[in-house]
Amino acid sequence: MILRFNEHILEGKKKKYGMDIEERTILFTDIKSSSELWNKYEEEMFKALDTHEKQIVKLSEKYNAVILKSIGDAFMLSFDKLKTAIDFAIELQKDLEKTHIKVGSKRLELRIGICGGEVYKRVVIRQGNEIVDYFGNVVNTASRMESKVSDVGGIAFAYDGKVDDLELDYKVDAIDFKDDCRVSERKRSERLLTDVHNYMCKNVSELKGVDEITAYKIRL
Fold first, then answer.
1. pLDDT tens digits, residue range 9-62?
2. Where are the beta strands (DSSP E) in 3-85?
3. Which residues lie below 8 Å from residue 216, measured CB to CB, with a gap of 6+?
4. CA-based nearest residue to 76, from 35, 25, 41, 123
5. Which of 35, 60, 91, 211 could form a disulfide with 65 if both were Cys (CB 3.0 to 4.6 A apart)?
6. Rg of the Cα atoms in the chain
7. Across residues 159-175, what is the average pLDDT?
């Protein structure tokens, strides 16, 4: 499948609830079975995470990403463009597959979730430091792409906008998350889904509070 993405540029600066609204792409990573790995291999996990964090930092510099926060062994990043975030995720997964960061008899494996669209931007001062954070459906959807849709070692993404403007060169499987999944045949743009490999429909409740959306799983 080939998706075509035409970057949407906001006309002027939008505001709501006292926060700026920006077009950003949010990416979440999480390590498979991290609680089990910490329990069994605590010392090795510290070393593995140090190596993994260096990977994240190096690729973030290459793709001009902003590391918003780390939550334990998970990371949240933001990007200017959806395509940049996906390219970052692909390189990270391929690098992990090649380097095999070992923890005991296991190796670090990630799930990665991505969503692009309009987000609320909040800037606060904490202990003298300026901290930027993002909120809204795009952030929640990116988190659900990681936890509910992405395969281990894989990538799942969504776009909270006009999907007919997507223009990306990746092979993907599509999943519609909607309230009514009784429709057996998907209505779709021929431009967007000319070569879909696999199509499924699932109830949006599986994403826990996220709006109806189509998710795409990249076949690496």
1. 344 457 776 778 899 999 999 998 888 888 888 888 899 999 999 999 999 999
2. 3-5, 14-16, 19-31, 66-71, 74-79
3. 3, 156, 157, 158, 170, 172, 173, 174, 175
4. 25
5. 60
6. 18
7. 75
Burial of 16 (0-12, 13-18, 19+ CB in 10 A): exposed
Q: Which amino acid is at 120?
A: Y
What is the widest separation between alpha-carbon atoms in the chain?
Answer: 55
Tell me how crowded residue 36 is: count the other CB atoms within 10 A of its CB: 12
pLDDT tens column, 101-130: 988 888 899 999 999 999 998 887 878 888
Q: In this structure, which amino acid lies at residue 201?
A: C
**Tokens encoding 102:** 């070992």
Higher pLDDT, 186 or 157: 157
Global pTM reads 0.85
| H/E element, 60 | helix 42-62
Length of the chain in residues, anyone?
A: 220
Question: For residues 85 and 64, what is the distance between their CA atoms, to the nearest angstrom?
Answer: 10
